[in-house]
Amino acid sequence: MAGSKPKTPYVWVATPLTLNEMLARLSDSPVVAVDTESDSLYAYFEKVCLIQISIPGVDYLVDPLAVDVTALGELFADERHEKVFHAAQDDISCLKRDYGFSFKNLFDTMVAARILGWNRYGLGPILEDRFNVRLDKRLQRYNWGGRPLSKEALDYARLDTHYLLAIREMQLAELQAKNRLDEAQQTFQRLTRIEPASKTFNPDDFWRIRGARDLLPVEQAVLRHLYIFRDQYARKLNRPPFKVINNAALIRLAPTRPTDLRSLARIKGLSYRMRQHAGKRLLEAIAEGLKAPSPSYRRNQQGKRPDDETLARYQALRAWRKGIADARNVEPDVILSNDTLMALARRVPGSVEALAEIDALDEWQRKTLSLI
Predict the structure, then answer these.
(1) DSSP assignment, residue 5?
(2) Residue 1: which of 109, 119, 122, 139 has the closest Cα?
(3) CA–CA distances in Å: residue 233 to residues 12, 240, 285
């Protein structure tokens, strides 16, 4: 970490007393910066493990594993307080999932950076460019579910919100100067409607493993059963599936199909602990796969190739979008996503009223499209 470091100490919030003191101070602040850290790299059932909150003059690090944070819901849902995030989507989704929070009045500094056409819009690059502060990349894969958290980790975590209010001030002025504030606010409003994160498992997602479609049918059947076994075992251990058995090891198991623990030990990527505690069950999954019918790969309905007329409209819309994006010096998907372009190409709305029926479009996008 280099450059302008925070000059004030952070406040560790892990008791009801410190939480209430923080809430009292937050109630007087019209703008509040927020971020979260989760343990998705270390647990099957991901959870929020740290909540960072900054207002002028103080950074709070809230430990939701030690104190009940449901009282924060009132702040997040209060229109009078603007909540500033950077890349809010995952944070909001996880907070909704874990606590049932709702959100009003957001400002997302990553979204704003993209709308403004900033060349670099990740938080790390922005801190380097604007504040000469470098984040320690070694801490990007830190286990936030462990306790105690290291001083280095806490210093790193506070930087995720410490500068957000200053970034917001820069962006707010630039959005107003470029007449893009309404566009940004409508995009921020859409973020409040993000659905809570959910943990789902589809056994046919084994097709997404690199190399799965290159296997023989019998090998694909074995791979599917191995994929199911891995998920079940990962749930039991509450570990991410890739840390139980990585995809490369699954791909090696499917064609070799070991039948005993000794041959299982020859498979690269299988840990000794895995073989000791679940080797027999792993061999059973292989045997079950050998008896199962061969799975067939089916593209989903949306994956079907559109007809030639739809494709022609889609390409015309892409060309139009590129012209708008180039004129504004932004990336094309800031204007409209590819999925939205395809929806427009399929539905062919012929009027402003028809555009209003497409929920994926914000008002500024409908106005822009109506000029075609």
Answers:
(1) -
(2) 139
(3) 36, 10, 12
Query: What's the rounded Cα separation, in Å, for the pair 68 and 74?
Result: 13
Residue 25, number of CB atoms within 10 A of its CB: 15
Query: Whose structure tokens read 């009282």?
Result: 71
- Cis bond before residue 148 (omega within 30° of 0): yes
The rounded distance, in Å, linking the Cα atoms of 278 and 92 is 36
> What tens digit of pLDDT does each residue of 32-77 get?
999 999 999 999 999 999 999 999 999 999 999 999 999 999 999 9
Write the CB contacts of 112 (distance below 8 Å, at least 6 apart in sequence): 168, 171, 175, 184
- The closest alpha carbon to 366, from 214, 182, 157, 115, belongs to 182
Please, are residues 280 and 252 in contact by the beta-carbon 8 Å criterion? Answer: no
What is the enclosing helix (H) or strand (E) of 84? strand 82-85
What's the pTM? Answer: 0.91
**Residue indicated by tokens 């479009």:** 361
β-pair partners for 54? 33, 59
User: Which tops the pLDDT comparison, 7 or 312?
Assistant: 312
163, with CB counted inside 10 A (0-12, 13-18, 19+), is: buried
Measured CA to CA, the distance from residue 169 to residue 56 in angstroms comes to 12
Instruction: Dig out the tokens for 55 from the structure.
Output: 């207002």
Quote the CA–CA distance of 289 and 122 in Å, as a whole number: 44
C-alpha angle 219-223-229 in degrees, rounded to nearest 5:
145
Higher pLDDT, residue 305 or 96: 96
CA neighbor of 53 nearest in space, from 79, 80, 21: 21
Alpha-carbon radius of gyration of the chain: 25
Angle at 139 between CA 137 and CA 140, to 5 degrees: 70
Rounded to whole angstroms, the Cα distance separating 332 from 355 reads 20
